[in-house]
Amino acid sequence: MSHPITSLSMHRQPTELVENRVCFAGPHSELSIYDTYEQANKVSLKSDALLYCGMVTGAKVMHTRHEQNIAFMPHESFILAPKEEVFIDFPEAQLDRPTTCLTVEISQERIAQICDRMNDVNNVDGLSPIDPNKPLHTLHTQGTQQVLDRLVSDFVQNDPDRDLLVDFGVSELVTRILRHHGREAFLQFTKTMPDANGLTNALSFIEANLAHPLDIDHLSKLACMSRSRFYQAFKRHLGCTPNEYQHQRRMNVALSFLKQRRSVTEVSMELGYQSLSHFSRRFHQHFGLSPRQVQNQLN
Q1: Which structural domain, as residue segments, surrounds residue 37?
Q2: What are the angstrom distances between the C-alpha of 213 and each of 194, 200, 207, 208, 271?
Q3: Which parts of the sequence belong to the HTH araC/xylS-type domain (predicted)?
Q4: pTM of the model
């Protein structure tokens, strides 16, 4: 994300030392880039619409009504629900090294349109609909980072198709947010009701065997489906293939282990990687940061 943000330096001459803002309007959305040039505490941020926040450089500490002292670092995503207020500390901001983040404000109408479509596809008896306003704070994937880079470029460019490209980018960003919520909800549903249906049965087996190679034929039998029907059902509800899902779960579990201050070698072995270098490469491909970089951020 550094490239498209850095290219906007001529538009970002500071008039304020705290949360100096440059904004760009788009269809159903607005991009804002904030630079802070001095240390500050308890700076308020609030929006009438859902607010996606992404860190670019530096670090913040966020305080919401649900949780205090949330470290917000580069390559992380944070979702602020409509009308919810967050208070922000800037412990590292300096005049020659500002703390920079971006926000994308997205209209409730656009989110509702995409959410309704996803809930129709993911309809499962007993599973609650996706809630787009749920809290989210996570190290986002390299794919999400690429969407953000492209979206920033689309917002600021002078192109006859600009609004169309921005709308595509915002839709993809919203889809990724909702997919994250949907998978988390499906996983929690599976943990409480592993025998609810064939798909939850197979998902429960994958979760219990993250360190082992997948046997699709065995998973299909657990789901009481043919191999092709199992693939179709899995992709419809989880948005990816079983192998892709296992990889994503491995990466998320690895991240949670690293946040528990466990060693990279221990995490690699526990998740079934035969080579430390292979694990580190896959982690970097997924998150855009190496396991060591994540550990350094925690420190």
Answers
A1: 1-192
A2: 20, 19, 12, 12, 11
A3: 200-297
A4: 0.86
